[in-house]
Amino acid sequence: MAKLLNQKVYILIFVLIAIGVSVQMYLFYLDGIEHIYDSHINNFVIYRVTFIHLINNIDLYPAFPKEFQDHFVYSPTFAFMMAPFVYQPFIIAIPMWVGYNAFVIWYSLKYLPGADLKKKFIVLGIIFFELITSLQNMQTNTLIVGFMVLGFCFLERKKPFWAALFIMLSAYIKVFGFGAAVLFLFYPEKKKFVLSMLFWGLVLLVLPLLVVSPGQLVFLYKSWFSHLQYAHQNEEIRLKLHYVNRLSVMGWLKVWFNFEPSSTLVQLIGTALLLLPLLRIKQYASMQFRYFFTSSLLIYSNIFNHIAESPSYIISVIGIALWYMNENRNWVTNTLLILALVFTSLSTTDIFPEYIRHYYFYPYLVKVVPCILIWVYLQYRLLTADFENGQENVKALA
């Protein structure tokens, strides 16, 4: 068995995943070619068309119902970065996009500090189904989490300049990716990291100037911020009026306990609990502590997002995988992992009958529950365990 778990097999699995998803998505494209802007690859269509809008000085953020469903919600910088995927036919562009997303995840796991090949296979096994699901949605969640993890990896390798680049790349896709910057507190070269963040932030901010004028870029950023504010308010209203429940702590409290506190209040409490372990400065020297905090941050990014959707849960599942890779194995941790594999990763797949998914898993937000349980357990460990030189001194639960 050990001979099978080698580096070539590890890489081959990622390649096969990318090929399989690419073929599936292209077949979906062919199946719905007459209604391309209302198909399974609508997200990818949005990204491609928005680059065309960018270079033609068109506002990126209104609705374009004749071109695609939904709205573009990312930065002008992200629209510019879609250039390599725009001018190829779909038979080439789809594998390029899926392959790029899969590569970012592989690359981030490649640089995990202190992780041998066996541990990387554990991580891959845990994220396997969620990764496929995320790639099938052709969104940006794999890029966001991949860049956040790479930020952590390069901080561990004492390369704050490159860590800052990856964290800013994540932030220019979705703003919450900037949260990974808090990890710099664990490392000595804080000034260099802050200056690097400012440098890369400015570079990425003005990158679209290669194709638009300064005035147009200022207009686009104003439009982007206005759209984000409008979308936030509109989503809040829609959640209340149409009884839509997102995969978050707020949705879980509403569905399970009929308790509807302010989303802002819950997020503030969650943020305070997330940051509380940072008071344990003496534990910063432990790689296990740093891994656990990074895992907590990734899970937090989903469960306290009041508009979180299923495709984004690759972020939490990678957080769970990094936690379990570094955790003591006992009945508690093994049970939590099994719950996550079954009810977070598999609950939205065809492994379960549609009836169960439709009438139980979706309305009761089953997908989010194991993530909440693991996050609470992680916070308990971060606040109470005694870490020293990368090894935890607390005895494993029997």
Strand content: under 5%
Helical percent range?
A: 55-70%
**SSE class:** mainly alpha
The main β sheet shows up as: 2 strands, antiparallel
**CA-based shape:** globular
Uncertain spans:
392-398
What is the spatial order of strands in the main beta sheet?
Answer: 1-2
Number of strands: 2
Annotation field: number of helices: 16
Mean pLDDT: 89
Order of helices and strands: HHHHHHHHHHHHHHHHEE
Description:
The chain is an all-alpha fold and 398 residues long. 63% of the residues lie in helices and 1% in strands. The protein has helices at residues 7-31, 42-55, 76-81, 90-110, 117-137, 141-156, 160-171, 190-206, 214-241, 249-257, 263-275, 287-303, 314-325, 331-345, 354-361, 369-384; strands at 387-388, 391-392. It has a two-stranded antiparallel sheet. Strand 1 (387-388) and strand 2 form a beta hairpin. Helix 1 packs parallel to helix 5 (117-137) and helix 5 packs antiparallel against helix 13. The longest helix has 28 residues, at 214-241.
SSE diagram, text form:
Blueprint: H1 7-31, H2 42-55, H3 76-81, H4 90-110, H5 117-137, H6 141-156, H7 160-171, H8 190-206, H9 214-241, H10 249-257, H11 263-275, H12 287-303, H13 314-325, H14 331-345, H15 354-361, H16 369-384, E1 387-388, E2 391-392
Antiparallel strand pairs: 1-2
